[in-house]
# Entry
Amino acid sequence: MFDRVWLDANLCTMTVAGEGPLGVIPDGAIAAKDGRIAWVGRRAELPATAAITTRCDGAWILPGLIDCHTHLVFGGDRAAEFEMRLDGASYEQIAKAGGGILSTVRATRAADEDTLVAGALPRLDALLEEGVTTVEIKSGYGLDLPTEARMLRAARRLGQAREVAVLTSCLAAHAVPPDFAGRRADYARHVAQEIIPAIAAERLADAVDAFTDSAIAFTPEETALVFEAAKRQGLPVKLHADQLRDDGGAALAARVGALSADHIEYANAEGIAAMAKAGTVGVLLPGAYFVIRETHPPDVAAMRAAGLSLALSTDCNPGSSPAVSLLLMLNMGCTLFRLTVAEALRGVTVNAAAALGLADRGTLAPGLRCDLAVFAIGRPAELCYWLGRNPCVSRVRAGEDARVVGGG
Ligand SMILES: [Zn+2]
# Structure
């Protein structure tokens, strides 16, 4: 006897148990026991009954969606800067007016933990309403130990305030803070020697991230220092790589066995091949590509040919991607990067789980967490097709109905 079964549903299992790359099982059933998936298959073959039966009226069930790259916690926002730019202000004028990433650093340093949590909740809720059950959240707007730690504590609290699994990444190596102006290498050493050990001692981070960009962030050598510090603490690493130019970030990520290399618009063929060989997931972030009006898309054809696993994410952040819709990213991944529907949907489920090093979710298979997203759609392609329509009708976390608004 199961705890609960879902019937009258079509399943995208993302496994070989079903048809095609989405692992489709039409007229399927899922059974849960103790928060895990106990059985998946055709309804006609369901082997036992359950205490609770949920009929889905022909809806489609996917693994709970996973947003594997966000900067959801930050102080302030940059709407005024967005408006200034459209009114004709130059980047220099905006910088002089205190804009850009350092304005977010200032606002984040000035915000206490409660303020950071309250500011992030509406953004998190928007993701949850679309069926997200796991979200990654980075630090990276403190660029000093107290604020980086506060951001990560706020991220952990979000996971308690809502029915969602939150994974945290320490992105202290996001930019050079004003206090280290002109001393980029010194700051990278500070991150490696002071910030990462202290964050690890408090168990605030599940991974360490960095931004390799020789012009506006850190060189591959400085990034390697940060990654060595992560390794000493037993933390896996991820990388913002080759977003605006080819800095060899993809190859670096592969060399250190990173879980993922993200953005990778300019990754070269050797880097892509090395990532595929190392099992490093490529995380594509079409929201940032769209907002900064980039014109050099990632070489998806080469990535596909190399057998690289691809994920898709919102990159939700106040500057380059104020995106709070993973469904919109599905459309953008298909429209801007020419991903297939199956690639896009695998990119927010099974491959997003791999980008976070999670083996217990991302597919519908016995033994995995029973995290589900249920959509009232006629076919899976609709999730990628609509812009601004949310067909998510319910969210299940560890076998239980998950409300969007938590507490109580
Ligand atoms: Zn990012």
